[in-house]
Amino acid sequence: MNKRYMDILKEYLKKNERKAIGYSEEEITKIEKLYDIEAKGDFREFLEYAGRCGGGLLEDYTIILYRELWSIQSFLRKNYFGFIDDEDFEEKVFYDELKRKPFIFSIEMETYYFYIRTADDDLKVYCFDENEEKLKDTGMDFNEYMVDLVERYNPELKPILEIPSIGELLVQCDTSEKRITGLREIREYISSERKENKELFILLERYLEKNRKEFTGYNDDEIRGIEELYDIEVKGDFREFLSIAGKSLGGLLGEEELSLYNDWSIRERIVLQYNFQEYVQKDKFRGKGRDGKPFIIDLKSNSEYIFITTRDNDLKVYHYSRENRTLKETENNNLKVYYYNTEKKELKETGMNFSEYVTDLIKRYNPELEELKDVSVSGDIINI
Prior knowledge:
By secondary structure, this protein is α+β, with helices and mostly antiparallel strands.
């Protein structure tokens, strides 16, 4: 009779008076959406019972789901095959593998990546060998591989660590507090923050006064979750805007002006951010790729991005010319907005910081401060 990993795990937990920690059905649905996978069979049972912690039967040096120090971005990048650097390899199999909804759950010796194709019912385990840059079929399914791990790393079924590792595949944040800003609140906010002369807030006040609408923003814990999920730093005017109107400007601007207000899934936003960072990194725009923690605020086409870099406190601004390969630097203490075109591969400064850019959008696309109709005017970048 074939051994079942779940039976071994339950025997271990009882023997050692340990507890496993899993995910709820609702959480597993979110994991499926965020990682673009299908949780089924033995793999789903594993997530339900021990997806966060196996009580110490297996530890995080094999089961990466238990890695406490990994960010959500780390898990997402690994499951987008972010560990593959060979461009020729990517051309041959990268997209074919992604179609099969892979999920990487184990790394051995930090060079062997084990994953299942969750779109397949057999849940066979495949290995990417980083040394040889090759994909291999292990000849085992998910259950068999997990049993094999136990037999190789913990055959005596004893706790490996005194305190077992606990991992997390989802951003946990409290969404119960709603941030609604009406005319009274915006006036109080302007007064308390001494923003009477800031043009953007004058326009926001006028719009609310004219249309009797409300803005919807993110609470502090949601903003913390946004920072974790997108690996960015939300500060200054950008934080202020997300808090007041990150989910909706009440129809003042819509999806065509700010991507914050479109109906993209969280997964689509994450993949867009990831691909954009790779483009910028390959074109050697230093400080504007992952190291600059960029965040896309608008997508003009499949090749034109409007974004801010959220990391540096001094927030230096760069202009890159593809033609003469020159890089010019200017200094500014404001949160600046950048324009990036993937066809010409040029990076240039818009000449505006974030609040100035939003002000310019209102003046160009809705100067009469009318409520927009027949377009998406609200979005959500944190709740799956």
